[in-house]
Amino acid sequence: MASDHKFSDSTNFSVIQFYKDLLPQDIALCNLGYKGEHLKWSSDLEALKLFFKEKLGLKGKCISPGGNSKKFKCTNFNVMATWYFKKQQTLLFQGNNGPILKESLTSNVMTM
Predict the structure, then answer these.
(1) Rounded to two decimals, what is the model's pTM?
(2) What is the DSSP letter of 43?
(3) Is 2's pLDDT higher than 80?
């Protein structure tokens, strides 16, 4: 389970393997999808925070309380996630490990 893992910037290889080991059915249950070149989150903010914590083992907090987007700043892995929740429902990842996370999630979603 993801919450058993401890992440830091020095764990890129184990993180890559961990995300590759995520089961597509876990992601399907979490309202994550892929359209065009973008990951999409189709549920609400609380479900997204639970997904980050329970499935991905990410710790952090939301730092944008309003507007068209919500940002989640991770404190245990160099990632910041931005969720554009209005019409697009796009989920973007920034930071040194953002591309690793996006690639792994995309790969899992596309195999469903």
Answers:
(1) 0.75
(2) S
(3) no
Q: Does domain 26-111 have CATH number 1.10.3470?
A: no
Please name the helix (run of DSSP H) or strand (run of DSSP E) that holds residue 46, with its range, or none. Answer: helix 45-50
Query: Residue 78: what residue type?
Result: N
Pick from 20-24, 61-65, 67-71: least confident: 20-24
- How many degrees, rounded to 5, is the angle at CA 77 between CA 74 and CA 83? 40
Sheet arrangement for strand 80-84 = 32-35, 38-41, 90-94, 80-84, 69-74, 60-62
Q: Is 77 left (phi over 0), alpha (psi -120 to 50) or beta?
A: beta
What are the structural domain ranges in the chain? 26-111
Measured distance CA(41)–CA(23) in Å, rounded: 17
Q: Distance between CA atoms of 4 and 60, rounded to whole angstroms?
A: 16
